[in-house]
Each structure stands twice: as C-alpha cells, then as structure tokens.
Amino acid sequence: MNWFTPIAEDCTSETEPREVPKELRNQFIAEKLVEGVSPSAISQALQIKRSAVERVSHKLSQETLEVHRAKAG
Fold it and tell me: Quick check: is 42 in a domain?
C-alpha cells in the first residue's frame, strides 16, 4: 500500500461521476465561445489542445442545430 492510497480512494466516490470535470470544462468552453473568445485563447487558458476546444464548439453547434430542427417541427 502506497502512502497516497487513502487520498486516492477519498477522491473517487461512486456518488460523484468522473465526467463532472469534463462537463464543467465543456460548459466553460461553450460560454467563452458564445462571448466571442477565440479557441486559441481558451485552449491556452485551460492548457488543452485547440482541437479539443474545436470539438466542443462543433458539438455545441450540432446540438444547437438539433434544437432548432425540433422547434421547427
């Protein structure tokens, strides 16, 4: 048993899904894109690749299209 095992066990609980940080990151990216912040600036701020920001942007635009199609009929 390593000295960090108890901490690692405390950080992972079954009540808290692992996707929460990713969802928060995606929400932040979406908000900043709507505000007009460039994908390059967002990727630098979050220390992630620009392609990851672009994926979120693409997913957001696809979801927006689906919502508009559903409202249209």
Answer: yes
Domain contains 10: no
Q: Give me the number of domains the chain comprises.
A: 1
Q: Which residues of 30-68 are buried (b: 16+ CB within 10 A; e: fewer)?
A: bebbeeeeebeebbeeeeeeeebbeebeeebeeeeeeee
- 20-35 and 50-72 helices, crossing angle to 10°: 80
pLDDT tens-digit series, residues 5-63? 555 555 555 555 566 888 899 889 989 988 999 999 999 999 999 999 999 999 988 88
Q: CA 71 to CA 3: how far, in whole Å?
A: 55
Please report the pLDDT score of residue 13 as a whole number.
52
Domain ranges, residue 64: 23-72
